[in-house]
Design brief:
Structural class: alpha/beta
Largest sheet: 6 strands, mixed
Distance between the termini: 43 Å
Helix content: 10-25%
Number of helices: 13
Strand order of the largest sheet: 8-14-9-10-11-16
């Protein structure tokens, strides 16, 4: 890349935890960041789940470079042993960090396209010497073209949740039933939301941490004075085994373990009925306007009033169509990273250290970091994104020794697996896998006591 291009900023897409961390590291190394956030404020996605408590403590949610940048501002570091909600994370860390970064963070700026200046994806000639061109649509209707020496895409996956359909596509009728479907954990502290689910029958589709959270909250609602008659149908695409509820007391993230125990308690108490081996093919309305879930095998469940779909997330790659990405065909994660995070092979705690080399693409100078780097793989932790940002920025600064010095140790959890593993017939599974019994409604028996903090944000150890 020529000298003038090297003087351009590094554009960071997304002002979430990973994007702001990348900007802090760029600032610390004397490089100019330009953070483009589609939402109206920094941490826009986190703000949408402000009511949900994380299963990581503050000590795992603050990036070291960001802390260094915040120190001179009079910022007060939260208690590192406490577990914040999404709202706490924004108020006490993300927004102060965005404020410290100043004008380098632009909100209401949605990236609509990234390419090489004057080169579409098929042109080789003089490609690597050209700067990146980034098209931006602003909230006020303006459109802008910006240039960058490198691009760090930390836009996450929040805006592209997985559908209810078992094939990875929306179930037939899913779009037309949108008035009774949500793809986020409901905020049961909101009176209007609470009234929507109280005394009604709700189907929860999914088996990760978000589904656990919804089950636990709906069970609390069922036991409350204003929740009499609240019932839950828990729809799983696989079977139930001892590992379904995560690591429990053995989880190195105690709040995550407690979350699984709380979900188990909801089922044990009879507040939730589990239906296993159910892959939704269609969502229909009955004569009363309620929703009926139909499976690929022809089964139909009794009508429900609401459906909460929590089947994980996937990356939005539409604005990167002119960039030469090297993505795994299954996970949609960088090819070198995919084997390290593949839930068909790894438990959540077995992710190996990784950095700029595993995150690199055929198109030099562009990196996907944070949640987006994991593609469809579940159980991304904030500290993973922070370490990715540190390594990538060191590489962009030319400090390959620091960039290659990657240190990442993730807490262990219960047995995990992806859809590929859990679709395997029970007789072919090896130790640690979840079994797949004949599909049937069941209730678990042994009572379990959840920890004091039974909430979590994002996807769970195993996606649905």
């Amino acid at each position: 890349m020529n000298a003038p291009a090297m003087e351009l900023p590094v554009i960071v897409i997304g002002a979430g935890p990973a994007g702001l961390a990348a900007a802090a590291h760029l600032t610390g190394r004397g490089l100019t960041p330009l953070v483009l956030e589609a939402g109206p404020a920094a941490g826009a996605a986190v703000r949408e789940w402000s009511h949900v408590r994380l299963f990581s403590a503050w000590g795992e949610l603050i990036d070291p470079a960001a802390e260094k940048l915040l120190a001179p501002t009079g910022w007060t570091k939260p208690d590192t042993s406490a577990y914040p909600s999404g709202g706490d994370w924004v108020e006490q860390y993300l927004q102060p960090l965005a404020d410290a970064l100043g004008d380098t963070v632009r909100t209401g700026a949605r990236v609509t396209g990234v390419s090489r200046a004057g080169r579409d994806r098929i042109v080789d000639a003089d490609r690597e010497s050209q700067p990146f061109v980034v098209h931006v649509a602003h909230a006020d209707g303006r459109h802008e073209r910006l240039f960058a020496r490198a691009v760090i895409d930390a836009s996450g996956t929040w805006t592209t949740p997985g559908p209810a359909g078992g094939s990875g596509l929306p179930a037939l009728g899913e779009h037309t039933a949108a008035d009774r479907i949500t793809y986020r954990v409901p905020d049961f502290k909101d009176p209007a939301v609470r009234a929507r689910y109280a005394g009604r029958r709700t189907a929860v589709i999914g088996s990760g941490a978000s589904a656990f959270t919804a089950l636990a909250h709906l069970a609390e609602l069922a036991e409350a004075d204003d929740g009499e008659g609240t019932r839950v149908l828990w729809v799983l695409r696989r079977g139930i085994s001892g590992s379904t509820f995560g690591g429990g007391e053995a989880d190195q993230l105690p709040a995550r373990g407690a979350l699984g125990l709380a979900a188990k308690a909801a089922v044990d108490a009879g507040h939730a009925e589990a239906v296993t081996g159910f892959r939704t093919e269609a969502i229909e309305r009955d004569a009363d306007g309620r929703l009926v879930l139909a499976a690929e095998d022809g089964r139909r469940l009794d009508a429900v009033d609401e459906v909460v779909v929590l089947t994980g997330f996937r990356p939005d790659l539409s604005f990167l169509s002119e960039i030469r990405l090297g993505l795994d065909e299954r996970l949609q994660a960088p090819r070198a990273l995919a084997p390290l995070i593949d839930p068909n092979r790894h438990s959540c705690g077995s992710v190996q250290p990784h950095g700029h080399r595993e995150l690199a693409h055929p198109e030099q100078g562009i990196y996907l970091v944070g949640m987006k780097s994991y593609g469809r793989a579940p159980t991304f932790l904030a500290m993973t994104g922070y370490e990715q940002a540190r390594s990538v920025v060191a590489a962009l600064a030319g400090d390959l020794q620091a960039a290659d010095r990657v240190e990442l140790t993730l807490p262990e959890t219960g047995v995990c697996g992806g859809a590929g593993l859990f679709d395997t017939p029970e007789s072919e599974q090896t130790g640690g896998g979840c079994c797949a019994p004949t599909p049937q409604p069941i209730r678990l028996s042994a009572p379990a006591t959840a920890g004091a903090d039974a909430e979590a944000a994002g996807g769970g150890c195993c996606g649905s």
